[in-house]
Amino acid sequence: MRLHDFTFDQLKTRLIADGVKEAHTLTIWNALHRRASTDLSAHDHFLPPIQRWLAEHAPEMDLPPITALIESSDGLTRKMLLRLEDGQEIETVVMGYPGRYTACVSTQAGCAMGCVFCATGQMGFVRHLRPGEIVAQVLAGQRLLRSDGESGLRNLVLMGMGEPLHNYESVMTALEIISDVRGISLGPSKISISTVGVVPGILRLAEEQRPYNLAVSLHAASDEERSALVPANRRWPLADLIAACRTYNEKTSRRIFFEWTLIAGKNDSTDTARRVAALLAGLDAHVNLIPLNPTNGFDGQPTALPAADEFQLILQEAGFPCTIRQRRGIDVAAGCGQLRAEKRAR
Ligand code: SAH
Ligand code: SF4
Fewer CB atoms inside 10 A, N or C side of the chain? Predict the structure, then answer.
C-alpha cells in the first residue's frame, strides 16, 4: 500500500503504529491531499516529527508521472496519460469551463467487459487500480488546473478506462478519500459512477446506501442487440438489469442516468427510441444520448444530429428527461481508452 491508498482512519492507525501523535493525522492528510505535494521543501514549516515521518515515507507518496498531455483545439478538454509503477498507462481527462471542471478518471487498466465500440474494451483487461491510483488521478487533474491558474474541480465521473463495479472495494475506498471534507472534499452528489450494468454491484450500492450518482450504460433495448454490443449483457441480461435499477430507485430514492451511445443505423431509429421508453417505463430515469466516438477496432459511425434530436424527442414525450451530449474533445482522442490505444499504434 502507498499513502494515497489510505482513508483518514487508516492513516491514523498507521501513524499511531509508527509512534506519531494521533493529532498530527490531519496535517499529514492535508499534505497528501490538499497540497498534493511531493516536494519535501513544502513541509518545512511542519513540526519536526511530522517532517521526519513525511521524509521517511516520501517514496510512498509519489504520484504517477504524466507521460502524455494533450489539449483539444478549443482548449476545453485536456487528456493525460499517467504511468503507474508497473509501467501500465491510464487515462485521465479534465474537461469543462473555468470554474466548473469535471475530471473523468479510470478505475482499471484495460477492461474485462469487451464492449465492441470501446477502445478500452478492445484492449482487454490488465488489472484493477488501487484506491490511491484513482485518488492520484484527481490530484493530477487538480494540479494541472492549478498550474494554469484555474480553480479546482467541481465534478468527478468514473467514465475513464475500466468498469468501476468490477473493482468495487477499491473504488468505494477511493471515493471515500476523495469526498472526505478534510481533504479533496468533492461532495458525493458531484461524483458519478458509470457502469456497464454489473447487477450485483448496483444492488450493493443500493444496499450500502452509497451517496453517489449512478449512470448505467444501456445502448440497446433488447437482449439480442445489447449482447452484440455489450457482451456483459449475457451475464446480466436486461430483465435483471432493469429489476436491479428499480430496486436502486426504490432503496435510494435517487434517479438513474442511462447512457446511450448513438451508433448510426444500429441503435438510433425512432422505433428503438420507443422501445427504450417502454423498457424504462416506471423508472426514475434520465437518458443521456452520446454520439459514438469512432475507434479503430469498430466499424461504426456517430448518429447525425437530426436523428439524435428525433430520438431525444420521443424519450422526452414519453416523460423522460433526455439530453444529447457531444463527446467533448474528439480531437484529443477523449473517448474512453483512445489515447493509450493511439500511443500504442504509433
Ligand atoms: N465501464 C463503465 C465506465 C467507463 S466507459 C461503463 O461502461 O459505463 C464510460 C462511457 O463511455 C460508457 O457509457 C461507454 O459506453 C461509453 N463509451 C465507450 N466507448 C465509447 C465510444 N467509442 N463512443 C462513445 N461512447 C463510448
Ligand atoms: Fe469496459 Fe465501459 Fe469500455 Fe464497456 S464501455 S469495455 S464496460 S470501459
Answer: C
Q: Is 342 considered catalytic here?
A: no
From 111, 118, 245, 336, active-site residue: 336
Q: pLDDT band at residue 45, thresholds of 50, 70 and 90?
A: confident
C-alpha cell at 307: 436523428
Length of the chain, in residues: 346
Q: Is the Cβ atom of 126 under 6 angstroms away from ligand 2? A: no
Q: Which pLDDT score, from 0 to 100, does residue 36 have?
A: 55
Domain count for the chain:
2
CATH code of the domain covering residue 250: 3.20.20.70
Specify the pTM.
0.95
Q: Which residue carries 431509429 as its cell?
A: 269
Shared-domain flag, residues 30 and 94: no
Q: Please calculate the CA angle 211-214-215 and round it to the nearest 5 degrees.
A: 165
Same domain, 162 and 276: yes
Q: What does the pLDDT look like over 127-145, one tens digit per residue?
A: 999 999 999 999 999 999 9
